[in-house]
Design a protein that fits this description.
The protein is an alpha/beta fold. The chain folds into 4 domains: 162 residues, MoaB/Mog-like domain (Molybdenum Cofactor Biosythetic Enzyme, Chain A, 3-Layer(aba) Sandwich); 43 residues, no CATH class; 84 residues, Molybdopterin biosynthesis moea protein, domain 3 (Molybdopterin biosynthesis moeA protein, domain 3); 73 residues, Beta-clip (Beta Barrel). It has 7 helices and 26 strands. It has a 6-stranded mixed sheet, with no helix packed on it. Strands 16-13-17-21-20-18 form a 6-stranded mixed sheet, with helices on both faces. Strands 22-24-23-25-26 form a 5-stranded mixed β-barrel. Helix 1 packs across helix 6, helix 3 packs parallel to helix 6 and helix 4 packs across helix 5. The protein is elongated and about 90 Å long.
């Protein structure tokens, strides 16, 4: 099978992956969930004219010049409407958030008045509408303020509450099951035996999936046997996983059993090798409604492939309108040789110059097992297949990696 180009592989993974169904969740649980439909305000905010300051509700015509004297006829606090009309020569004491009474068309702040018994004397003239928040200045009933496909921010939750929504319609979170494979893997804190290594891939992958809005099912580490790998695949299916991620065993060695196990379980494979570096042995297929992505075992390859393919898939299943990573332009930090037939994703450090230009310098060693260099990188520098040699200072494309 020929190596599949990266864009074709991503298109195959995303094909037929529609947003998951809608569910209603309490407002407090909706942070970073994806809205399933447009939301229109259920009320007008503010519902009537409100005072923006502590002072006096007046008729602007009566307070248009310094020295005017007005009789105070009552007091208005927030949540306590006034049942009288402010007439000529009258004023009502009002506090921030108080409803402006009929007859008044301005609020004069208390600092611009002098109190003399039951009267106030204007020391600074006001004008119509001064210090009043008019009805609907924020929004009106029926205004569509939150759009389907948006990932709800903390400010969005405050807005939804003001719109009078106690619950919100959001897309169900994707369930991502993660199955590691390999007799060589031991858990952090254990002492590796001869030929063994500490398992690290899952921690980054689970964090990456959760950060994008998925619920994660950890299936642990399967031994390098067909039975153990098959059992893990079945557990993912029985748990209702929308996506199964396997790590390791995706190559062509005698002990790389993931593809054989997937084939045996009836997974329809779309591809299992792609034209990229790192990450050539990447697999994708379907088992009923469950999407399967087989990641390489090398930790850098595993993470880069998950970043490039799993993240857009999760975003699409979540119902987000923007699912693809966005490339940025930068300047090369050092010379690069011509590229071969595979698309390269070089781990790179970024430096911003005083003039605002971003310098992307690939780390010296690009081996797919080097986690130290991956952790130190801020971006992937993208090199297209057969890209010519490039000099330091020339333009390049980067994908920023997630920040803390």
């Amino acid at each position: 099978m020929a190596l599949m180009p990266v864009p074709d592989a991503l298109a195959a993974i995303l094909s037929g992956s529609d947003a998951l169904p809608e569910e209603m969740v309490a407002l407090d649980l909706a942070h970073r969930r994806v809205l399933a439909r447009d939301l229109a305000a259920l009320r007008t905010q503010p519902p009537q004219a409100m005072s923006a300051m502590d002072g006096y509700a007046v008729r602007a015509a009566d307070a248009g010049q310094a020295g005017a004297r007005l009789k105070v006829i009552g007091e208005i606090a927030a949540g306590r409407p006034f049942d009288r009309v402010v007439g000529p020569g009258e004023a009502a004491r009002i506090f921030t958030g108080g409803a402006v009474p009929d007859g008044a068309d301005a609020v004069i702040i208390q600092e611009d008045t002098a109190v003399e018994g039951n009267d106030i004397v204007i020391t600074e003239a006001t004008s119509p509408g001064r210090h009043i928040r008019r009805a609907g200045v924020d929004f009106r009933q029926g205004d569509v303020l939150l759009r389907a496909g948006s990932r709800l921010t903390d400010r969005d939750l405050s807005l939804a509450a003001a719109m009078n929504y106690p619950r919100l319609p959001v897309h169900r979170r994707p369930k991502v099951a993660l199955l590691a494979t390999g007799d060589e893997l031991v858990m952090p804190g254990e002492t590796p035996g001869p030929g063994q290594i500490v398992y690290s891939n899952g921690y980054a992958l689970r964090a990456l999936a959760r950060a994008e809005g998925a619920d994660v099912i950890d299936l642990g580490i399967a031994a390098d046997t067909l039975a153990a790998t098959t059992t893990g695949i079945r557990r993912a299916r029985d748990a209702g996983a929308d996506v199964l991620i396997t790590t390791g065993g995706a190559s062509v060695g005698d002990h790389d059993l993931v593809k054989s196990a997937l084939d045996a379980e009836g997974v329809a494979m779309a591809f299992w090798r792609i034209a990229m570096r790192p990450g050539k042995p990447l697999m994708h297929g379907r088992l009923g409604a469950m999407r399967v992505i087989g990641l390489p075992g090398n930790p850098v390859s595993s993470y880069v492939c998950a970043f490039l393919f799993l993240v857009p898939l999760i975003r699409k299943l979540c119902g987000r309108t923007s699912i693809h990573h966005t490339t940025e332009s930068a300047l090369l930090g050092h010379d690069l040789a011509a590229n071969d037939q595979r698309q390269d994703y070089l781990r790179a450090r970024l430096l911003t110059r005083d003039d605002g230009a971003v310098i992307a310098t690939p780390v010296t060693q690009q081996d797919s097992s080097l986690l130290g260099n991956l952790a130190a990188a801020q971006a992937l520098l993208v090199r297209l297949p057969f890209a010519p040699a490039a000099k330091a200072g020339s333009s390049c494309d980067i994908l920023r990696l997630p920040a803390a």
